Amino acid sequence: MTAKAAAPRLELKGISKRFPGVVANDQVSFAVPAGTIHALLGENGAGKSTLVKIIYGVQSADEGAIVFDGNLVQIGSPKEARALGIGMVFQHFSLFEAMTVLENIALGMDDPPPRRQLEARVREVLDSYGLSLDPHRYVHTLSVGERQRIEIVRALLQEPRLLIMDEPTSVLTPQEVEELFKTLWRLANEGCSILYISHKLHEIEVLCESATILRGGKVVGSCDPRRESAKSMAEMMIGGSLKDLSDKSDCSYGEDRFTVSGLSAPGEPPFGTSLKDVSFSVRSGEIFGIAGVAGNGQNELLAVISGETQAGVTGSIRLEGRELSQLSVGARRKAGLASSPEERNGHAAVPAMSLAENAILSARSRMGLASGGVIKGGAAKDYATRVIEAFSVKATGPAAAAGSLSGGNLQKFVMGREIMQNPAVFVVSQPTWGVDAGAASFIRQAMIDLVAKGASVVVVSQDLDELLELCDRLAVINEGRLSEAMDVKGIDIEKVGLLMGGVHGSEIDGAGAGRAADPSHAPAKRPEPAL
Amino acid sequence: MMLAAPVIAVALTLVVGAVLFTLLGHDGLGAILEIFVKPLFNPYRWQDLLVKAAPLAMIATGLAIGFRANVWNIGAEGQYILGGLAGTGIALATLDMSGGWILPLMLLAGIVGGMAWAAIPAVLKTTLGVNEILSSLMLNYVAIQLLYYLMRGPWKDPMGFNFPQTAMFTADQTLPMVVPGTLIHLGVPLAVAVALTAFFVMTRTITGFQMRVVGLAPKAAAFGGFGAASTVWIALMAGGGLAGFAGILEASGPFGQMVPQFPTGYGYTAIIVAFLGRLNPLGILLAAMVLALTYVGGESAQTTIGLPSAATGVFQAMMLFFLLATDILVRYRVVSGRAAPKTARAPGKAEAEAKSGAKTGETKVVTA
Amino acid sequence: MSLDLLVAILMTIAGAATPLLIAGLGELVVEKSGVLNLGVEGMMLIGAVTGFAVATTTGFPVLGAFAAMVAAALASAIFAVLVLTLMANQVATGLALTIFGTGVSALIGAPFVGITTPTLGTIFPDWLTSTPLLRLVFGHSPLVYLGLLLTLGVWWFLNRSRAGLILRAVGESDTAAHAIGYPVLKVRYLAILFGGAMAGLAGSYYSLVLTPMWAERLTAGRGWIAIALVVFASWRPGRMLAGAYLFGLVITMELQAKAAGFNMFAPEFLAALPYIATIAVLAIISAAKRGSANAPACLGKSFRATA
């Protein structure tokens, strides 16, 4: 830490921000001294993103003041923020797929030098921080980690005095996370303050020297994460304890029910990942996990299994021995294969339609919601009502528009709609993405209950902790290739991390013993507060 | 609420139209009265209105089915011509025959002719991914040249003093009047029946559900098992079939033969009808009457106050502009009114929404 | 074939290609910003009639061309307000603009039917156009040269200038551009106005250069061909130039065949040829590369800045 300035680099005083019907930030105050890494902790919906958008000038606060290096400032736009020396790396990168790295960097600067000079400066920054990135590559050819590097370089070129990182590690492999931390420590040593937004407690314990905890838009505590236990921080974050998932150790597995073998398919245009010879099989009563960093073919795999993608697909998909790969989406559903894609709004559900109509979308044949091509309105309403009740969906009724539900409630409805059709196999992507802790635990329990009845479940998730908690076996997908399946009990986390980062088979075996066998003590793993 | 935007749009068109035409040196207020009011008080004009509204409603109903699913068939004009030509082909082949089967066969040929013309953009779209807006529109120009060719050459009436037109249709080839002694032919009740059927299909059947889902959320449609190709085909067959049907009804009804002046822009005006009717078949029946009024009133305004014939087109386009503008304002009120009560008890939802918005790109709303 | 005839044919090709090129480049810039404006035909008609009216009343065709640009840009402003500020559907609004342009141009043009106007002729001295070959270089309307310069200018703007980079970024990802702090709507407003002005200029070419008179629907669907050419060109100015001249050739074939009394095809078939060729070209280009990476990712979608 440097002692150059007595005033903190950033100080927030009573920041409040309201949206219609919601208070996103309520009298938030805290300070970040120069050269420190400060964590902003909180669950989804705690108000973290809104707060950093205010600091970066994307949104304006209704009340309160921002003091930067001892001066009261008004930050009206990201441009003004950058002029002050505030840089930001977004959770969802503001990148342009069809443009080069250099063009993207130029777009992120307010007054970029001519392209040759810019390229020289970019290479300089890359060298000095030991980052590897080709300035002339098109963004759509880059991995997620490389894309994040663009944003970091973009921020570093402005020589920031405060760098905001919004959930930077949620899409990175454990190895990429370590690389990132090295960069951040170096920046802090050079005097740059870092505001680090995350809900990953273990990372914060390692990385940060101070933390502010948000819940429901309010500051509910602050601490030194190095001296705090993950448990105590989690309790502050959640503000209560959540019920444990029922133990599923006593359940027994049946025969192989769902077998995918040699599945290959082209990527989604224009920049998707193609699937290459994907094989796995799931027994009845089993939850099978597919881990991996986003954009490695997960969406393609789900679309191929559900039947939404048919063109160019080779390989076989068998349910209880029956070949499904030539069947339509509807026929696969009839055969007992249910699915739920990552995207709720606009993919699993039609936001502008009622819940009853959304029930028709995927349950019409198995639940008899139509006959002879004519919709049975009453039956659709009944089924939607049953789903709402059984899955405690907070909605005004079956006539409520899907788009009027909160993310967690809509996900509960979507999951309920599929699970209550009693599928033999349920394939689901990101079941708890962007869902609050209570709903997440409900959804996980529902999947456990489904396999307890003898079904098979395939969970595709970027959240490794969720998979370790939920699954019996898992495999890792990287660049469209799926690894061998591994038993979750006694799994080698380091090996999983290497697989996620694209290091395959023999290379790993030669790497020696893994870091930890017990997931609950793995350093790369955070305790999941939701569980 | 459903009616608010179209009513406001028509009202604004009247007001702005009156001002605009006054500024252009015409009798603005007189023009409005002449076009939009006077025909309503003239029983003979009412017949004319119904006869003009029927093809507009029929074409618009077909187009609306496609527009719901974001399939932009703007080739109705060409499909209308081909429907007329296909039916005329049957008529010319059966000139010296008689029997009650001839007219139904002509009508069927009209539907098939329109569908066949619409099948070209459908095939191009489903197999190669060719944009249907451009391909269907280009075919309008081709259809007109085909019509000219047939009128000038092969189909010219040998007894017609070298006029480029076909022989008159026989009694068995002509549409009967439903009310004797008036202009109201069978096409008028048929247009109403088509709209009612379409209303049932769109609201109560899986096919209608499919079209609506595709328009609102194409990925959800794929998830629900509705193929993109089948949607394109349904949309273009409905649009082409009904445009072709309207075409042969016009040829065998008001025209009674095929002439080079057969295309009158109904295929384009029907686009306005479809939007003014909010893509709802029942709304389209009303909207077709309004647009028919601009034709009927526009014609009489030409003779009575010397308003240029082009004024009709300007009024029609203004109506669509105002509809598109007010539609959004009305939609906004609906959306904000619905969202407000429930966010009250969901703290932090805005943040979650902002995230999902960034991810799904749902801020990029394509409105139809 | 004599040199005179060959030069005449080549000049006809350039003449037929130029309005497609100018309107197409305008639309290309609009689409690169993420907006699909299907009103090109309507704006061209407004340009054609305005140019004609101003040229006949003032006697200065250059003034007519300027007025055409202003009038069509004003018409495109209606479109811009609807699709950008009011977030109306771009397809429907573009169609409305074409219907509007058709009606308004017929209304304005009614008193001018049957009159001829001074044309926008060559700009070089007579001695430079005294031989066929010199004529091929110097004998065109100034708009032909302008079209070529515009191709170069649009290429430079999109690929070399910072403003062009920002415009492409806005068309590629409006949300990302907004997040960085670029004024998405302002960029799109300017692009639409530019596209309108170019469509107007292209329209005036029909009434001031090609046929020095006004008739309803004078542009006969050429605006739609210009839009199709943007797809054909895969949003690249250089290919736009090639596409426009290719269509200039197709249109010239029709004219020449008629003039030569060429009877193998019905004249109606020749008249339909440019439209059939458009469909064929779209089919070939779509078959060759599905999911073209060069298409602006946000094309046709409304953008709303999140609060």
UniProtKB/TrEMBL annotation, chain A:
<protein>
    <submittedName>
        <fullName>ABC transporter ATP-binding protein</fullName>
    </submittedName>
</protein>
<keyword id="KW-0547">Nucleotide-binding</keyword>
<dbReference type="Pfam" id="PF00005">
    <property type="entry name" value="ABC_tran"/>
</dbReference>
<dbReference type="InterPro" id="IPR017871">
    <property type="entry name" value="ABC_transporter-like_CS"/>
</dbReference>
<dbReference type="InterPro" id="IPR003439">
    <property type="entry name" value="ABC_transporter-like_ATP-bd"/>
</dbReference>
<comment type="similarity">
    <text>Belongs to the ABC transporter superfamily.</text>
</comment>
<keyword id="KW-0067">ATP-binding</keyword>
<dbReference type="GO" id="GO:0005524">
    <property type="term" value="F:ATP binding"/>
</dbReference>
<feature type="region of interest" description="Disordered">
    <location>
        <begin position="510"/>
        <end position="531"/>
    </location>
</feature>
<dbReference type="InterPro" id="IPR050107">
    <property type="entry name" value="ABC_carbohydrate_import_ATPase"/>
</dbReference>
<dbReference type="InterPro" id="IPR003593">
    <property type="entry name" value="AAA+_ATPase"/>
</dbReference>
<feature type="domain" description="ABC transporter">
    <location>
        <begin position="258"/>
        <end position="504"/>
    </location>
</feature>
<dbReference type="InterPro" id="IPR027417">
    <property type="entry name" value="P-loop_NTPase"/>
</dbReference>
<feature type="domain" description="ABC transporter">
    <location>
        <begin position="10"/>
        <end position="241"/>
    </location>
</feature>
